[in-house]
Structure formats: structure tokens, C-alpha cells
# Entry
Amino acid sequence: MSSKVERSTPPNTMTPIGPYSHIAKVGEFITIGGTAGVDPATGDLAGSDVASQTKQILDAFEIMLASVGSDLDHVLHINVFLADMNDFDAMNAAYAEKMGESGPARTAVAVTALPKPGALLTMNLTAVTKA
# Structure
């Protein structure tokens, strides 16, 4: 296994709001950092509701994973950081539309604040490559 860490932020994803890359990859191991539901074309949140933001995050994950030879079927674990745990059911419904009822391991926690103003949640993930 290669020990070199490859870092990237693919086109058609939101611009990081800090000094980081979205993706870090070593060999077959992939991590994607905290991602908000931002429309990369506008830089604005994909919507004011948790379902819209959840769908945008998962769409961004698809683009990011494809850029490093993976896909949503190769996700090992997703962390969900909700600004309000009352949004859990709506997030779950939008999440299940994309990930299915038997998706990867997942953790969901409530946080007191998120870096992107207006963001209702962020997610990060761990995955492996397809090959």
C-alpha cells in the first residue's frame, strides 16, 4: 500500500471554506472532510431545509468519490453533524432516498454550531476504492 497521501478538491464541488482539501486518499483508503449542502454553482446552500441540504451533500459525495475511483457503494462510515436533532427524521428520509435502507455504518450527533452560516448539517465519510 502506498503511504503517500493524495489530497484533492474536484471541480463541481463547493470551494473549501478553510485551508483544507475535501479528499485525502492513501492507497485504497479515502476520507472526505466535513461537507455542507452547498450548491457549487452558486456557493449558496442548496435549500433552507435539511432534506435539500442532505441531498446536496450526498450528491457532492458522489462527485468526490468518483474523482478518486470510488462510489457510494464503497462507503464504510458516514458521520452526520446536525445543528438540531429535531431534523433527524427529515435528514433520515432524504438520506434513505440516496443511500437505501441498509446503508453504511453511520453516526449522527447534534452540534451547537457549524462553520457555514445557515447550514443545518454537515457530513464526512470514510470509504475505499472500487478496485
